[in-house]
């Protein structure tokens, strides 16, 4: 596994996008002020990503009433793996709390599963979807 992203799940996406782009001066690798998701170059193979907080909450079916969560996720650590199915099974067998089954997130271009660490932080393992071209 390699840490590919640190994803901040933000309430005010547009303001945060402008902050990281204009104030910190980070180059935008993907996304724009109105896309609800963006990636920034931070000078290393790991990227910083911003995601509108509700997008992740909707994807994982979490809500403010779930007291086992840190009041809706604020951060996710993303690990790229070679085989999501195998790694998810290994993590679950080792005792990791799985919160989403392995599935294709076609709109995101990835196959992924989600887990929580002992303190409730969101961990995503993923790999790019292999798109077959006829």
UniProtKB/TrEMBL annotation:
- Gene3D superfamilies noted in UniProt: 2,3-Dihydroxybiphenyl 1,2-Dioxygenase, domain 1 (3.10.180.10)
Protein's UniProt keywords contain Nucleotide-binding:
no
Q: Which domain of life is it from?
A: Bacteria
Organism of this sequence: Spinactinospora alkalitolerans
Q: Where is the VOC domain?
A: 2-128
Q: Which UniProt keywords apply?
A: Dioxygenase, Lyase, Oxidoreductase
Q: Does the keyword Aminoacyl-tRNA synthetase apply?
A: no
Q: Which PANTHER family match?
A: BLR2520 PROTEIN
The terms under GO molecular function for this entry are: dioxygenase activity; lyase activity
Q: What is this protein called?
A: Catechol 2,3-dioxygenase-like lactoylglutathione lyase family enzyme
């Amino acid at each position: 596994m390699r840490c590919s992203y640190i994803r901040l799940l933000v309430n005010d996406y547009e303001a945060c996008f402008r902050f990281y782009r204009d104030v910190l001066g980070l180059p935008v690798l993907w996304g724009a002020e109105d896309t609800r998701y963006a990636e920034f170059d931070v000078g290393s193979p790991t990227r910083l990503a911003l995601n509108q907080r509700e997008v992740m909450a909707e994807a994982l079916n979490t809500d403010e009433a779930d007291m086992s969560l840190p009041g809706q996720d604020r951060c996710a650590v993303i690990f790229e793996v070679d085989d999501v199915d195998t790694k998810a099974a290994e993590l679950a067998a080792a005792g990791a709390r799985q919160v989403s089954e392995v599935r294709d997130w076609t709109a995101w271009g990835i196959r992924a599963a989600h887990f929580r660490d002992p303190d409730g932080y969101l961990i995503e393992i993923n790999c790019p979807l292999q798109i077959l071209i006829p």
